[in-house]
């Protein structure tokens, strides 16, 4: 009788991004996506990869969001993030454990690291994905991303090389519900690297201008070309401030130079899921609505009663922006003052 050789379960990995011991929420979104992929790939397991120094406390959170195992490399050389030691450590894990799929957040760190890993292990990488599924016939990852400036969507398959890698934008995927009682396995691995092997040193950190984190804002007041110019955004800033939110914008506003790219919402900008999204002077092209349609409540303000934005809005106001918005500001401030 011939002896059966057991085939290891396909591993779906998620890179658990952290900074100064704080995990990035996109890691939990990716674990939720990995669980959905695992359901379409029978016999597969969902696991996390965590690097840093004194970060083992993050592992229990990963279990609660769906990881059955976390591979941990904990070393002083990994604080702060540097591409070479992280790239060395992660690619070593990939070579040893051979995951089938590896997902990263499309953050500054995730984009930097994912490209390095793909190059080191000689595989492909689909960047800035908006959707992940398993191809029903081939049983491999189907990663969808915008292309040609957001005018088309392309679905990319990595047929021959492994792991199949993708970066996914924060907030594109829904946040899974954590399971408080979930447990998992922590597997520690060494870095096997010395400081003298790393040519880059961080001498000191010079704090810059605080970055706008629009993806995780609870309230967004966004303006479009209908605002008429950069001066109109002064009103939106006042409304956003009174609501405890931030200002967003459609692509034409960014192209015109009225606001910086960090404010852009849409297919070629940020994907957002706030509790309240106010769209002022935004026509509602699909390139914009795909980035904000997951909002809990959408209020659209436009002078054109036939504007497409009204089709995705929960509530609509047809009127002059420069009359409607000041009145909204007055009412919000009045409510907060008990009037």
Poorly predicted runs of 5 or more residues: none
Shape-level CATH architecture of the largest domain: 3-Layer(aba) Sandwich
What structural category characterises the helix and strand content? alpha/beta
The named CATH superfamily of the largest domain? HUPs
Shape, per Cα inertia axes:
globular
CATH C-level class of the largest domain is Alpha Beta
Major sheet attributes: 7 strands, parallel
Mean pLDDT: 91
Multimeric organization: single chain
CATH topology-level fold name of the largest domain: Rossmann fold
Proportion of residues in β-strands: 15-25%
What is the domain tally? 2
Q: From N to C, what is the helix and strand string?
A: EEEHEHEHEHEEEEEEEHEHEHEEH
Would you report the number of β strands?
17
- Tally of helical segments: 8
Q: From the alpha carbons, calculate the radius of gyration and give it in angstroms.
A: 23 Å
- Please give the share of residues in helix: 25-40%
Report the span from N to C terminus.
85 Å
């Amino acid at each position: 009788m011939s002896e059966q050789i057991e085939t290891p379960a396909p591993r779906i990995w998620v890179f658990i991004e952290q900074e100064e011991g704080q995990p990035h929420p996109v890691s939990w979104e990716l674990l939720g996506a990995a669980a959905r992929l695992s359901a379409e790939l029978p016999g597969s397991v969902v696991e996390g990869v965590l690097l840093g120094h004194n970060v083992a406390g993050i592992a229990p959170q990963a279990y609660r969001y769906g990881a059955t195992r976390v591979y941990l490399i904990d070393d002083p050389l990994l604080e702060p993030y540097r591409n070479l030691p992280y790239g060395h450590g992660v690619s070593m894990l990939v070579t040893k454990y051979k995951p089938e799929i590896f997902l990263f957040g499309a953050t500054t760190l995730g984009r930097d690291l994912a490209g390095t890993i793909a190059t080191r292990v000689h595989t492909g990488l689909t960047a800035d994905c908006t959707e992940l599924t398993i191809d029903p016939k081939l049983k491999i990852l189907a990663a969808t991303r915008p292309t040609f400036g957001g005018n088309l969507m392309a679905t990319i398959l990595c047929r021959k090389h492994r792991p199949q890698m993708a970066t996914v934008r924060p907030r594109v995927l829904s946040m899974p519900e954590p399971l408080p009682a979930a447990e998992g396995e922590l597997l520690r691995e060494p870095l096997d690297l010395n400081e003298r092997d790393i040519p880059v040193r961080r001498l000191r950190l010079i704090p810059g201008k605080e970055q706008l984190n629009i993806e995780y804002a609870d309230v967004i007041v966004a303006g479009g070309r209908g605002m008429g110019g950069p001066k109109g955004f002064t009103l939106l800033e006042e409304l956003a401030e009174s609501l405890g939110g931030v200002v967003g914008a459609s692509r034409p506003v960014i192209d015109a130079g009225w606001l910086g790219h960090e404010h852009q919402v849409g297919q070629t900008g940020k994907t957002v899921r706030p509790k309240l999204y106010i769209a002022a002077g935004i026509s509602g092209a699909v390139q914009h609505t795909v980035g904000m349609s997951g909002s809990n409540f959408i209020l659209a303000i436009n002078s054109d009663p036939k504007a497409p934005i009204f089709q995705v809005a929960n509530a609509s106001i047809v009127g002059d922006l420069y009359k409607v918005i000041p009145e909204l500001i007055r009412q919000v401030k009045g409510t907060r003052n008990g009037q």
